[in-house]
Design goal:
29 strands, TIM Barrel, alpha/beta, Rossmann fold, 21% strand, 26 helices, Archaeosine Trna-guanine Transglycosylase, Chain: A, domain 4
Length: 639
């Protein structure tokens, strides 16, 4: 039904399979009112790339019931791709009721052969109290259970309600996950978006996601403005429906990724879409269809940018740029830091490409939250005294080589950089995201304040006896007369990164005994580690982390007890993994809760026999939920 193909944070490139074809997600569903078709769905597919559309089953029921039952919704719309139908819940909310029951409208959607139908949920307003919100949830869940019994072969969307109460949203989502639905929808959010209450929107989405099964696509009902696509995708929303392209055009307004403009305020045509490139300012002001085409072009283009950003590992950068286009979006971006404990579980180990500072909000991304947490939990300080260097060019050990040599010639100290990301022991200077980051030379006051907070929090528990901030050679006078130091940054880097990546104790398991390294002829950096004549791991140039080989996997398997680093597969299927085949999600029976996407993992059978080593594509909860797709890309099988 739904398969995850690539990811960045909770943002997902997926495939959603329906009876009329596969939809590549994130996807935009233009809303089609069969009574007011301004751009035919067939043209939307050819001109704008619409894969799927949505129409209102209640309107179809009232206006052309018999024809729809006879010919089907695809014929009514003249669209041969997937069609989703809404139940009329919004009309029920606006007008106080609709002239059909939940059972009638679900059966009607099934009988007109909609690919995805929707139960008649109860809409909760943002100002509803908890009692009314819970009553709406109970009725929504009851109707969804009934709809699941009536749907036949039609895929069903069930909606999360609960107003602004995050605990109710989560409970509703948890109950919805137990029902036979194919799509999880998040409803009741249009008033939030219309009022630019984006911080509340973030809270609502995160609460719903925490209760929803991860193996079903999430539809954010009513999210039709491109200004929210990136943010919503980052939070794990896969489907968006848009009536905005038409409603805004009718009101003389144009959609843009950074906001809305009224045509009467334009003095130039500020767009390069195909429609605007051929239209004059007068055309935009006079012709509603021209405006609707522009709105569709802009919306689909923004969604393509979101997909590309996910593929490049640059979704956070895109969202941070977009959220600076409006103060209320900036509030929403800042709200994300309060949900890092949840967001971090889905954040990949590292990403492709650089890591860009776009403002003080970047300091609070989930991957940096993980970095600072693991620094506290998995890192052991190697010396009694520490010299703190200010932020500078990366990688620090290379750009500060002469300074380090001069310091160690006089003092036996450890060196730590007070980075904008948090304190960086010199051993971590090549590891993602530290070594791959780009930071301006001059930082703003908010970022500098956070830098100090991060540093002090770490130093209080690090165990150093004394620390001195480097202000020139005179700083050495504040350190005890220890004599020359023996700190070897290459040796320390091997051990520190191993513990950071795999857990405290991994370095001892991997590097005890006779260890040799093979270095790059071009850069001189370590690329291969050999222990007792066996290749145990490779050092990746792109992120400074380790790729495990079979010999290294055996050492970690012996050193750590279950469930650490494990992905447990059915014993009956383990033989395929021994042969080097990928571990499929449907055969995973358990996994280490601490595993994150793209982590190096040990594939074991149900007796804990090591059968393969590879890279996880999913975290534990995703592995246990998905029935399609790869859970672990196996690199080597073990006989």
């Amino acid at each position: 039904m739904f398969e995850l193909r690539d990811r960045d944070g909770l943002g997902r490139l997926g495939r959603f399979t329906t009876s009329h074809g596969t939809v590549e997600t994130p996807a935009l569903l233009p809303v089609i009112n069969p009574n007011q078709v301004i751009i035919p769905p067939k043209e939307m597919r050819a001109k704008f790339g619409a894969q799927i559309v949505i129409t209102n089953a209640y309107i179809v029921h009232r206006a052309m019931r018999e024809r729809a039952l006879a010919d089907g919704v695809h014929a009514i719309l003249d669209f041969d791709g997937p069609v989703m139908t809404d139940s009329g819940a919004f009309q029920q909310h606006v007008y106080g009721g609709v002239e059909v029951s939940n059972e009638e409208i679900v059966a009607f959607q099934r009988d007109i052969r909609a690919d995805v139908g929707t139960s008649l949920d109860r809409f909760s307003e943002p100002d509803h109290g908890p009692g009314r919100a819970w009553a709406d949830i109970e009725e929504t869940l009851a109707r969804t259970r009934t709809a699941a019994e009536l749907k036949g072969d039609m895929l069903l969307a069930g909606t999360v309600q609960g107003s602004l109460f995050v605990d109710l949203r989560r409970r509703c989502a948890e109950e919805l996950s137990k029902i036979d639905v194919a799509v999880h929808a998040i409803g009741g959010v249009v008033p939030l978006m219309e009022a630019y209450r984006f911080r509340d929107l973030v809270r609502v989405i995160v609460a719903a996601k925490q209760g929803l099964r991860p193996d079903r696509p999430v539809h954010l009902f009513g999210a039709g403005h491109p200004i929210v696509f990136g943010l919503a995708a980052l939070l794990g929303c896969d489907l968006f429906d848009s009536a905005s392209y038409h409603k805004y055009a009718r009101d003389g307004r144009l959609l843009f990724p950074d906001g809305t403009r009224h045509v009467e305020d334009l003095r130039q045509v500020p767009c390069e879409c195909p429609t605007c490139s051929a239209a004059s300012l007068g055309d935009l002001q006079k012709d509603e269809r021209v405006r609707a085409e522009h709105n569709l072009y802009v919306s689909f283009a923004e969604l393509r940018r979101v997909r590309q950003a996910i593929a490049e590992g640059q979704l956070w950068e895109l969202v941070e740029r977009r959220c600076r286009s409006h103060p209320h979006l900036l509030e929403a971006l800042r709200e994300l830091r309060h949900h890092n404990a949840y967001l971090e579980r889905f954040e990949p180990l590292s990403r492709r490409g650089g890591f860009y500072f776009t403002g003080p909000e970047t300091q609070h991304r989930p991957i940096l939250h993980r970095y600072r947490e693991r620094l506290q939990e998995r890192y052991s300080t190697p010396k009694r005294y520490v010299l703190l260097l200010p932020e500078g060019p990366r990688p620090y050990a290379s750009t500060q080589r002469d300074l380090l040599a001069a310091v160690l010639a006089k003092r036996d100290v450890h060196v730590l950089v007070k980075s904008v990301w948090g304190p960086v022991p010199i051993e971590f200077d090549e590891m993602y995201p530290i070594g791959q980051s780009l930071v301006p030379d001059v930082l703003d006051a908010e970022s500098l304040e956070a830098l100090e907070v991060f540093a002090q929090r770490f130093l209080r528990g690090a165990g150093y006896e004394r620390g001195v901030l480097w202000r020139g050679e005179a700083s050495l006078e504040d350190l005890p007369e220890t004599g020359p130091g023996d700190f070897d940054v290459v040796h320390a880097r091997l051990h520190a990164v191993a513990d950071f990546q795999f857990g405290r104790g991994a370095a001892n398991a991997l590097f005890s005994g006779k260890v040799e390294t093979v270095r790059s002829k071009r850069t001189g950096k370590v690329r291969t580690v050999i222990r007792e004549g066996e290749h145990v791991l490779s050092v990746r140039a792109e992120d400074g982390m380790y790729t495990l080989k079979a010999a290294g996997a055996k050492l970690l398997h012996a050193a750590f007890s279950p469930p650490t680093l494990r992905v447990v597969v059915e014993t009956e299927t383990a033989e395929f993994n021994r042969q080097g085949r990928n571990a499929m999600a449907k055969f995973v029976v358990d996994a280490d809760p601490e595993l994150r996407p793209f982590d190096e993992v040990l594939v074991v059978d149900q007796s804990d026999a090591l059968v393969a080593v590879g890279r996880a594509l999913l975290n534990r909860e995703e592995m246990l939920a998905f029935r399609r797709g790869v859970a672990v890309q196996v690199r080597e099988g073990l006989p």
